[in-house]
Design a protein that fits this description.
There is one protein chain. The chain is mainly β. The protein has one domain: Jelly Rolls (Sandwich), CATH 2.60.120.10. The protein is about 0% helix and about 45% strand. The chain is built from no helices and 15 strands. A six-stranded antiparallel beta sheet has the order 1-3-4-13-8-11, with no helix packed on it. Strands 10-9-12 form a three-stranded antiparallel beta sheet, with no helix packed on it. A hairpin with a 5-residue loop joins strand 9 and strand 10. It is globular, with a radius of gyration of 14 Å.
Length: about 140
């Protein structure tokens, strides 16, 4: 981790999320919880304070989308055109395919969620513009 902290996510911090770093403001970490043999992708994503992902859309011809299960810290989720939603341990967010959104840590808190990619047909992710400081909750 890039700074000293006593934050220990319930499902482990994993490794720096370098493969997707271009789609994040700040540092995130990825800990895969299932492999391909499970048939569904479950991953613990940890965000340093202030880290968030870009606006993005999960596409699918049928089914698809994403489910977030918040497990540690304090974060935010926002759908395009709506107010941000506070995320705390125990919060579950169901994101249907086709919804433009972002999620990440609060400015002053580490944050972790389990990300579940819902099964569907012809699923893909479209990464969009970064969340600006003006859009990011104070």
């Amino acid at each position: 981790m890039s700074e000293q902290t006593d934050f220990t996510p319930m499902f482990g911090i994993g490794n720096p999320n370098d493969a997707y770093a271009q789609y994040f403001t700040g540092q995130s970490y990825l800990n895969a919880l299932t492999g391909p043999e499970a048939g569904v992708a479950l991953a613990n994503v940890t965000f340093e304070p202030g880290c968030r992902n870009n606006w993005h859309i999960h596409h699918a011809d049928k089914g698809g989308g994403q489910i977030l299960i918040c497990v540690d810290g304090h974060g935010w989720y926002q759908e395009w055109g709506k107010d941000p939603q506070e995320l705390t341990p125990g919060t579950v967010v169901v994101i249907p395919a086709g919804v433009k959104h972002w999620h990440g840590a609060a400015r002053d808190s580490w944050f972790s969620h389990i990300a579940f990619e819902a099964p569907g047909e012809n699923c893909s992710n479209e990464w969009l513009e970064p969340v600006t400081d003006d859009e990011y909750p104070a």
